[in-house]
Amino acid sequence: MQHTINAIINARLPGREGLFHIPISQGCFGQIQPQQASCDAGPADLDARGNLVSPPFVEPHIHLDAAFTAGEPRWNQSGTLFEGIECWADRKPLLSREDVIGRAERALHLFADNGIQHVRTHVDVTDPSLTALNAMLEVRERVAELVDLQIVAFPQEGICSFPHGHELMEEAIRLGADVVGGIPHFEYTRDDGVASVRWLMELAHKHDLLVDVHCDEIDDPQSRFLEVLAAEALRLDYGARVTASHTCAMGSYNDAYCSRLFRLLTRSGLRFLSMPTESLHLQGRFDSYPKRRGLTRVPELLEAGLKVAFGQDSIRDPWYPLGNGNMLRTLDVGLHACHMLGMDWIDSCLELITSNGAAALNLQNYGIEPGLPARCIVLHGSSPYEVLLEQKPVLASIRDGRVLVSR
Ligand code: 17E
Ligand code: FE2
Fold first, then answer.
1. Among 48, 81, 154, 252, which is disulfide-ready with 122 (CB 3.0 to 4.6 Å)?
2. Are 77 and 206 part of one and the same domain?
3. Cα-atom radius of gyration of the chain, to the nearest Å?
4. Residue 42 predicted with pLDDT over 90
5. What's the pLDDT at 93?
6. Does the CB atom of residue 217 touch ligand 1 within 6 A?
């Protein structure tokens, strides 16, 4: 049974000293008051006991239509992105509404239990039946009390390279997808990749939709579709609404090219998502030694003032056999892979799985501020460092004043 609360007491807040009393009424936060000392909880109070209270975790990049299909009908033995796409193409004809809804909701309940309240899922629309898309549009309504779900029309096998790819994208938008996707590095030619990015940006702009492109998810330093995406975002003045996912090739670009590229990136202001567990697993597969990590330039993008967040990408699917819904695991791996275990990075690390993800999703009412919807989580630890050290399950998850999770 979910009950509502009137306040969170003995709360610590990210980047602020001392303890706080956070009142909640009619599903929204009230005026946050500093507390002189730790106090006892009333019947409708949630006692944070000096632990950190944070806005909910954001899962900005996942593929729920493929969740829990690892090994079906066969395992990805090479561990490459490309064999994953082949395995998925064999699984796709077996999809049904019930199958997709069952697996996606299983993943979303696991996410909710881990303090995630905002999710963006890519749904493969290179399927003439659009079975997964229709099922996920239903799921978006069915889980609304637990999570906000954004649906990306994602052309897994290409827009230009898949029969009727453009029409399937347009149909997905007509049916109600929130975000326009793409996969330029998978199109047959560089020209097709460029054409696909220009076309999808026009489509999004015309329909006033967000954009999230699987962009340069490959170790090939010649894969340079990010510059096309950024230039289009700049031209259309659309940067805050455009997300570049993966950009793995940036980990292989030379510094001279990157210095030119960063000038464009900062001007366009687009958002970045890196999926550290996934890229460590799928990239570097064509290297002997030394072997690349396959991640984009996360600290460099952050230092340039751009928003970067981490996502899980997969949960036991043809691309990645693991995943447990715990964003702290993703954060841990990402900080290791990106050389970000310096104390300054650790102090701000929760932004990578909270506010920066919210920026990528273009969320408007996110944060712990008076008047905003009362959505937050209580973490195990009084500082980001302690939270990262322990990686314990969240102690509570509150949504619009209702207690979704409490331990
Ligand atoms: N599809 C894709 O193109 N890339 C990925 N990382 C996943 C699906 C999980
Ligand atoms: Fe992905």
1. 154
2. yes
3. 21
4. no
5. 98
6. yes
CATH of the domain at 41: 2.30.40.10
Q: Using one digit for the tens of pLDDT, what is the confidence trace for 167-226?
A: 999 999 999 999 999 999 999 999 999 999 999 999 999 999 999 999 999 999 999 999
For ligand 1, atom 3: residue with the closest CA:
156
Residue among 105, 114, 181, 112 at smallest CA distance from 141: 105
Q: What residue owns the CA closest to ligand 1's atom 6?
A: 313
Buried b (16+ CB within 10 A) or exposed e, 387-405: bbeeeeebbbbbbebbebb
Is the CB–ligand 1 distance for residue 278 below 6 Å? yes
Helices 225-235 and 190-207, packing angle to 10 deg? 30
Among 38-47, 192-201, 341-350, which stretch is predicted with the lowest mean pLDDT?
A: 38-47
Q: Which of 83, 157, 187, 217 is catalytic?
A: 217
Our answer to whether residue 72 is catalytic in this structure is no
Whether the pLDDT of residue 38 is over 90: the answer is: no
Q: Whose CA is nearest to atom 1 of ligand 1?
A: 156
Ligand 1 atom with the shortest distance to the CA of 318: 9
Query: pLDDT-based confidence at 114, cuts 50/70/90?
Result: very high
* Whether residues 184 and 277 fall in one domain: yes
Residue span of the structural domain in which 375 resides: 3-55+367-406
Query: Which ligand 1 atom is at minimum distance from the Cα of 63?
Result: 9
User: What's the pTM value of the predicted model, to 2 decimals?
Assistant: 0.98
Query: Within this chain, do residues 208 and 229 fall inside the same structural domain, yes or no?
Result: yes
208 C-alpha to center of ligand 1: Å? Answer: 25
Number of domains present in the structure of the chain: 2
Cis peptide before 290 (omega within 30 of 0): yes
